[in-house]
Amino acid sequence: MNYDVENYFDQEITFTYEGQDYLWIGDYSIESFNEEESEFAPAYGEIEVKIEHTNSLSSYEHGYEVIPTRSMLMALELEIERNY
């Protein structure tokens, strides 16, 4: 499988999860797949977002730090994907 990886460090991203806005600061990477070599390979042009490290996650409304859950990080990954 042929793919490219782009790394992003200390990024600030705002996203909405269950009706609340959050500010996430951290590192992530994006893998872009360029060709299909097997039935298990992602389709051409597909991307995969991976959260590498979370420095901070805070609620805009309440202003306090939040412990990230897997579902929150999935919402963050979708937000990154939409804006890529």
What does this structure look like?
With 84 residues, the protein is α+β, with helices and mostly antiparallel strands. It has 1 helix and 3 strands, in the order βββα. The protein has one helix at residues 70-82, and strands at 3-17, 20-33, 47-59. It has a 3-stranded antiparallel beta sheet with strand order 1-2-3. Strand 1 and strand 2 (20-33) form a beta hairpin. It starts with a strand and ends with a helix.
**Inertia-based shape:** elongated
Please list the strands of the largest sheet in the order they lie side by side: 1-2-3
Instruction: List SSEs in N-to-C order.
Output: EEEH
Mean pLDDT: 89
Unreliable spans: none
Count of β-strands:
3
How would the blueprint of this fold be written?
Blueprint (H helix, E strand, L loop, with lengths): L2 E15 L2 E14 L13 E13 L10 H13 L2
Antiparallel strand pairs: 1-2, 2-3
Features:
84 residues
Entry summary:
The protein is of the alpha+beta class and 84 residues long.
